[in-house]
Specification:
The protein is mostly helical and about 210 residues long. The chain has eight helices and four strands, in the order αααααββαααββ. The protein has a two-stranded antiparallel sheet with strand order 1-2. Strand 3 (about 190-195) and strand 4 form a beta hairpin. Helix 1 packs across helix 5 and helix 7 (about 165-170) packs across helix 8. The longest helix has 17 residues, at about 5-20.
């Protein structure tokens, strides 16, 4: 590409870095490696860029790369670089676009699920009942295990009850390390937020 007018060609840069990340050459660390390479690449083009914006918006950058490559045509979902472009405009043009993970959510709510009610003694007839709609945002690319853990916590604590690491450990029957990792993940995804006035390490689900 020829980047004579960077404002017009940020889309090309976004597609370039998204394609680079999609190669996923390593077992882990692909996003960090892509960020380091891209910083060095931009510096060869004369841009004075640092790692600061990548460090401050690491989860957003990673999810923007996912959205730039993710398609689900059956649901009308198409890959888009618009979120990467917002990131790039902040990085290269000094703009102040808000970089929120929630803006990238494909589906903001859990869909209604039909569950089978236990067979009744009379008539032995199965009845479908509908679970309440859970108003909580979880990115599409989150693994099933993590998603199920978040759902379990939300079902128990909802929006009104706060919880900490010990409650996560007890609810999910996990040890301290994975409980802390899950809390950090939910904070990064902006699903929960620290609760003030209840001591350190207490959180609420974000409405």
């Amino acid at each position: 590409y020829s980047y004579d007018n960077i404002r017009d060609d940020i889309r090309h840069l976004s597609r370039f870095v998204a394609n680079l990340w999609q190669i996923h050459a390593f077992g882990e660390g692909n996003t960090r490696t892509t960020a380091v390479f891209f910083i060095k690449y931009l510096r060869t083009m004369g841009f004075d860029v640092t790692n600061d914006i990548f460090a401050e918006n690491a989860w957003y950058f990673r999810n923007a790369l996912v959205r730039a490559n993710y398609n689900d045509y059956s649901k009308g979902v198409h890959a888009t670089t618009e979120y990467l472009e917002s990131f790039m405009r902040n990085l290269l043009l000094g703009e102040h676009n808000e970089l929120h993970n929630r803006n990238m959510h494909i589906s903001g709510y859990f869909e209604k699920q039909d569950i089978e009610k236990a067979k009744q003694d009379i008539g032995d007839k199965k009845q479908d009942i509908e679970e309440p709609k859970q108003d909580i945002h979880i990115p599409e690319d989150v693994g099933n295990k993590t998603k199920n853990n978040i759902i379990s916590l939300f079902k128990k604590y909802g929006y009104e009850s706060f919880f900490g690491r010990s409650e996560v450990m007890e609810t999910l029957s996990i040890t301290a390390s994975p409980a802390s990792a899950l809390i950090k993940r939910m904070l990064d995804m902006e699903i929960i937020y620290p609760m003030k006035g209840k001591g350190k390490g207490k959180y609420l689900f974000k409405k």
